[in-house]
User: What shape does this take?
Amino acid sequence: MSEVVLSVGNLTVGYGDIRAVKGISFEVQAGEIFTLIGANGAGKTSTLRALSGMLRYGGTVCLNGRDLRGLAAEEIVTAGLAHVPEGRRVFGPLTVLENLKLGAWIRRSQRAAVAADLERMFTFFPRLHERRDQLAGTLSGGEQQMLAVARALMSQARLLVLDEPSMGLAPKLVKEIYAVLREINREGVTLLLVEQNANLALRLADRAAVLETGVITLAGESAALLQDARVREAYLGA
Amino acid sequence: MVGAFACLLLVSLVPLPFIVALLAVMVITAVLGALIERVAYRPLRQAPRVSAIITALGCGLVIQNTTLSLSPYARPMPRLFESRTFEFAGVTLNSLQLFIIGVSGVLMLGLDFVIRKTDWGIALRATASDRATVPLMGVPVNRVISLTFAVGGALAGAAGVLYSQAYPVVGAAMGALIGWKAFVAAVIGGIGSIRGAVLGGYILGVVEVTTVVVLPSTWRDLIAYSLLLVILIFKPNGLLGSAAQQKV
Ligand SMILES: Nc1ncnc2c1ncn2[C@@H]1O[C@H](COP(=O)(O)OP(=O)(O)OP(=O)(O)O)[C@@H](O)[C@H]1O
Ligand SMILES: [Mg+2]
Assistant: This one.
């Protein structure tokens, strides 16, 4: 049996009267890539924002066996969950380097280790190295997405949660980012990936769940879901 | 004003050396700054931006009127600094003026360094640009904002002490005019830019003094505020402000 990193039980999220997530449960195993796919408005972002402490929720979220209820968002980073938010949200008036340093905030006293990690990010994303002193707001969309991923990795969290990293990117850039995600995962970081692009996500992930209007309708090995008639019809356009 | 009064109170209780009094006042006003944030700003964090401006004006009124009820009359400020006058290259200076320029210079350079280079400075600028995303970095936003208000309070306290040595009368209303001038200086320089505010301050000071020398002194505010309008017409973001910059 492999070890469970993240365990989500009967999660509900609402905005006033709107119920965005209606009691979903899933588990993410150590070292795997788990993807949550679903159409616009399915509740993917709401789920991730609940996990990282940005939204109130019902149900339970446990990270490495520890109940996250009541922890502030910044404490959840220290607990080992880093979140690459929807739409990148890099800090535009800060340089690339400053964005990365901020990502390492919780380890800022370990200067040597942070410096080594900066170099590691620059080998993952050589473009960020060329632009290290450029303001993040002036980067292209793809470069901003790379920065958002690298910034989250700087926390050295063992679980990386990504909200649609392929959104709005050219296929070549998507490939580049996905290649890095695979590499990061090989180095032992567990990934929880949210995507609308089911084809892409299912090819990368080990296991997957399909979210439809706040409910998980299908779950299993991604290879199996790729073959599933319902998934093929609804999400792969086949 | 609070800085000047705190200084007056301190030195009338215990005869402190000037530097010690200055530091003590900065600590007091830092605590007051953080306290004001906690009580008056934090509950309005999610409210529209104009609420922050209204709460700022409200805090000013409360502090000013509290002081007024405790000390209705202006009081003389004792000289804490042995000042010598001397002439240098045809300019008459005294050592107090040099000291004020020196201390404010050190504080400005220090602030500039903290904001540009330190982790807290980076966190502060990130918070100003996207407060909602900062917690995802593990940064405690509330502590960053408290610290910002504390630093602001400390600097304002230092300004009050220095001002009350240069113009040694302290009264409840003394801060209002300085506050407006600081605001004008910040707008001239570009809201959100610290170097801009410093530049704006010096420009405003030079313009005011020059006006008084060459024109009737009653023209001073007319000229200063006209300058503000002209700058806003040609550079709406101020001299060093950039269009995209935001403020906390
Ligand atoms: N701040 C909010 N206030 C009110 N309703 C919201 C809010 N945020 C999301 N919702 C609603 O919750 C539901 C789920 O939204 P969510 O953003 O989680 O979907 P999503 O799966 O991430 O969609 P997308 O793929 O478009 O990003 C939607 O119906 C949306 O309208
Ligand atoms: Mg979304």
